Amino acid sequence: MTGMKLSDIPAWKNLARHADIISRPEKHLKHLLKEKDRLINFSLNGAGIFYDFSRQRLDHRVMDLLFELAESCGLKQKFIAMVRGEKINTTENRAALHTAARNFLENPIFVDGKDVMPEIRRVRDDIKLFASKVHAGKITGSTGKPFKHVVVIGIGGSYLGTEFVAQALDPLADKNIEIMFLSNVDINNFGSIASTIDPETTLWIVISKSYTTAETMANTKQAYAFMTEKGLDPGQHFITVTSMGSPGDDPSNPVLSSFHMFDFIGGRYSVTSAVGGVPLSLYLGYERFEHFLKGAQDMDLHAQDSPVEENIPLIAALISIWNNNFLGYPAHAIIPYASPLSKLAAHIQQLNMESNGKSVTQKGEPLDEPSGNIIFGEPGTNAQHSFFQLAHQGRPFPIDFIGVINPHFKQYKSQSKGVTNHQELWSNLIAQPQALAMGKEDENSAKSFSGNRPSSTLILNDLSPGNIGRLLSFYEAKTVFEAFVWNINPFDQFGVELGKTLATNIRKQMVIKNQSSEHLFNDVDPITRFYLETLFSGK
Amino acid sequence: MTGMKLSDIPAWKNLARHADIISRPEKHLKHLLKEKDRLINFSLNGAGIFYDFSRQRLDHRVMDLLFELAESCGLKQKFIAMVRGEKINTTENRAALHTAARNFLENPIFVDGKDVMPEIRRVRDDIKLFASKVHAGKITGSTGKPFKHVVVIGIGGSYLGTEFVAQALDPLADKNIEIMFLSNVDINNFGSIASTIDPETTLWIVISKSYTTAETMANTKQAYAFMTEKGLDPGQHFITVTSMGSPGDDPSNPVLSSFHMFDFIGGRYSVTSAVGGVPLSLYLGYERFEHFLKGAQDMDLHAQDSPVEENIPLIAALISIWNNNFLGYPAHAIIPYASPLSKLAAHIQQLNMESNGKSVTQKGEPLDEPSGNIIFGEPGTNAQHSFFQLAHQGRPFPIDFIGVINPHFKQYKSQSKGVTNHQELWSNLIAQPQALAMGKEDENSAKSFSGNRPSSTLILNDLSPGNIGRLLSFYEAKTVFEAFVWNINPFDQFGVELGKTLATNIRKQMVIKNQSSEHLFNDVDPITRFYLETLFSGK
Are B497 and B74 in contact (CB under 8 A)? Predict the structure, then answer.
């Protein structure tokens, strides 16, 4: 398959042909759904998740061709190579071992001839010990008061996953610690946090692999100055999560503690490493973090060991390719019918769009088929009252519906229209995929629904830490399986470099202007000059 | 134009032809941007907003054709008809008078022969008086304590706009009142709010035009039961915002106060009515709400009075049509470089996708060109560290960048790399549109950028209430101008009805099961039965 164009693969060609067949009126979902055992034939149970793809626009022939495509592209082999530590991040010559972060088996995993598991276990132990000391009041701020606020300073992969998990498990947070995220370099972000916290009881966690990320460094400087101005010793209120030997791991720059990240775990895949581990263990307790890891491991093993035909994230990836490249849907929505999952879409948006929004293959050849999807979403039923008008009657886009059988809160029993809130939620979760698929004709064309709009439904038993880990790992595995089909590298992100370079040039102009107010920005293009002048015109 | 197909309009045909020309290599943005006075020629100042569309893929010829299209479609006349109260919501036989909610002129506005302005002014006065009494401690909860928590119970248009504005102006909230939003019927949403508030000092605002919205009624019942269980009199802790004569405006169901909504203001356009007015006046004070209204009015007058060639929201709508129907971009991102605008995209997502995600014209004929866009977004620079990889090297999508010259917080002065946080933010705001437009070739194809990716930039002087009103009204006017080109009705939402109908049938099954646990769901299709059984299998 390597070097072969996607459109040259026999299964790909047959899928393109079959897409025409699926677009015929008799293959409308309203007909497909009437087939006997449609749900049984197009759903799976595995690793604690029920996955229903019966409302996708596909039949047995499509699935067979997709499985053939999976074989042609060596999806399983590539996944196993990833888990074993092969350097599949070829452009950066690195392994991609986020699965090792939640490996609790005894097997060694070698990178450059060295087993990485002892280091991973050591970091987990460091986190466990540190969190327990903070919770016991043995580690405190500089005035001896226990920590009650944790502020994560980090951006992108250094916070989105943690924010998702913290929000999902919020009702379990019983450590008397609040968590906040200082991500944006916008001073409004810092200002609003600074006006909320009690500095004496605040612990800042600076998360940056290189410890040079511009936004994170700027926010760290503000936080240092703020704590110093309050008469507190920053060295006793800051910890870092960073690479060994980075400027954030420098003994001459004392902090309470430093926890290590590894170059074989990329930011957007790092929530099960110390990046998520430190803040989540402080917020929820290390035990819950470990349950979360074990759930993720459960899905990792499913993705690695299940045959293609029973492999939930692999099949979800194949369906994503089908929708994207054959049926022509450029966007995909994630709609959890669970408020605690309100940050899931934002996390998967990063995970998937940064991984798979690429223009060249692993070998640097231009793609002959577009990769990547626009991912967006809000929880249901909220989304129904927001953008579902377009989902039903405008441009169609495939949807992942997510349902949870048991909610966090069970004590509120009032009924409205004869059902509990949770039942009302489910009446909508059940109705929406059906309405999208079936459609409905009406004499009034404004009230007609064309239907044939695809979706999948994922069901979790509850929002336990383990299930959140399973859900996270499901989307991580789905993302890399997609990339393995497209034959792109889901672990680099060179696409963000050009903007950084240009910003550096613009920053230099600002530095000169800060030093000398007469500076006139004559060296830059007229549009850049205009905006620099506009900024400096501010009061 | 009425009854005429879009593709039959001469300007439309010429635009289609010109789209081919714009796609030629010599029309790449890197060349267009080298034209003399590019910024001056393709930017506008008006109603407190600077609007730069120099980085859109267009030239003078495109603009001329778009202006011709605007004339053919009668955009200005339709807008004026809307503002004057004509029943342009034809499918529901209603006026669309959100602009009247912020009208402070003396002119009457007639609907069915009756001037609606006295009623609108009366509601504003009611809000002002009520808010001032709450702030003065003259209206309190049932135990005499002043209100400190306001919980808005409402979904979709009954909260998204208010949440956006409350978040944007949060640093100005000096009334010692916290605001929360209970939107989702998910019991987790209620549970997490119930575990946060002090019931004695909590005021619930139930917002529903019909006072029958399933989610809002379910949450209201939970809240009533909760307050009653705490020994508090709900009648002294609830207010309603609803239509005159609805079940929420029934004296036999006593509440502290009721504020009226009108059938000529739809939910997604209602933040300047009592829907936003009541909670925002409690949170920020009525004066700031009025400043917000006056800013919105300022942009309304600009949209109504400016000639087509100087009309910012109208031009933004034309560019949206150009990108959507001629250049083939199905999605659009809103990226404010301002954390306080973090809820803007979610609000505009509803406003625009619910308004324009339609399949038939005003006359009920099928559209010959797709309408509506997928709208999404996160604040910059966060978005750069999330999905901008795809923006630069994957599927392109047009972007609105938004910059603010003066942030809320000015007291934090630490510099990093020689610049303040706010300057760092702007270095990115300036760099990103340039990087997207210009691209860059590199020997390493993985580090090459094709460029030619379009964006606009909007600049506000600050985040004052007035400017937030201007920004809101800009997007409202842009949305309706788009609809006026497509000749669709942006004020109905029949697309959400089918899901509601199906949910009602499913709810009936649940009610029977709640009454009789032997009920077997034999009357429903197999997939629905499976999910009902799954739900009832919960612990």
Answer: no
* ipTM score for this prediction: 0.97
pLDDT digits (tens, 9 = 90+) for B180-238: 999 999 999 999 999 999 999 999 999 999 999 999 999 999 999 999 999 999 999 99
Q: Are residues B329 and B356 in the same domain?
A: yes
Q: Which two tokens stand for residue B245?
A: 């004569």
Both A171 and A257 in one domain: the answer is yes
Measure CB to CB from residue B392 to each of A338, A427, A496 and give the nearest one: A496
| Domain with B27 in it | 6-72+306-405+418-438+449-492
Letter for the amino acid at A161?
G
Note whether B454 and B42 are within 8 A (CB). Answer: no
N-to-C CA span, chain A: 60
Please tell me whether residues B267 and B312 are part of one structural domain: no
Choice among B215, B290, B354, B482 that is catalytic? B354
Residues A287 and A310 placed together within one structural domain of the fold: no
B379-398 b/e (C-beta count within 10 Å ≥ 16 → b): bbbbbbbbbbbbbbbbbbbb
Query: B209 and B240, same structural domain?
Result: yes
pTM over 0.95: yes
CB B484 within 8 A of CB B303: no
User: Where does B373-525 have alpha helices with state H?
Assistant: 388-393, 421-438, 465-486, 497-515
In chain B, whose CA is at the least distance from the CA of A376?
B376
CB B506 within 8 A of CB A430: yes
Is residue B147 a contact partner of residue B177, using CB atoms and an 8 Å limit?
A: yes
> Structurally, how many domains does chain B consist of?
3
CA distance, residue B278 to nearest chain A CA (Å): 21
Distances (CA, A) of A70 to A49, A80, A256: 21, 14, 48
Number of neighbouring beta carbons within 10 Å of residue B198: 11
Do residue B406 and residue A539 have CB atoms under 8 angstroms apart? yes
d(CA B434, CA B427): 11
Are residues A68 and A191 part of one domain? no
Same domain, B346 and B385: yes
C-alpha span between A146 and A444 (Å, rounded): 65
Chain B residues touching residue A429 (CB < 8 angstroms): 531
Contacts of B459 in chain A (CB under 8 A): 534
- Residues B62, B197, single domain; the answer is no
Any bridge partners for residue B49, and if so which? B46, B460
* pLDDT, tens digit, 9 for 90 and up, residues A141-188: 999 999 999 999 999 999 999 999 999 999 999 999 999 999 999 999
DSSP codes of every residue in A215-254:
HHHHHHHHHHHHHHHTT--GGGTEEEEEETTSGGG-TTS-
Q: How far is CA B173 from the centre of its chain?
A: 21
> What is the per-residue burial (b if ≥16 Cβ within 10 Å, else e) of B215-235?
bbbbbbbbbbebbeebebebe
* Chain B: closest CA distance from residue A298 (Å): 22
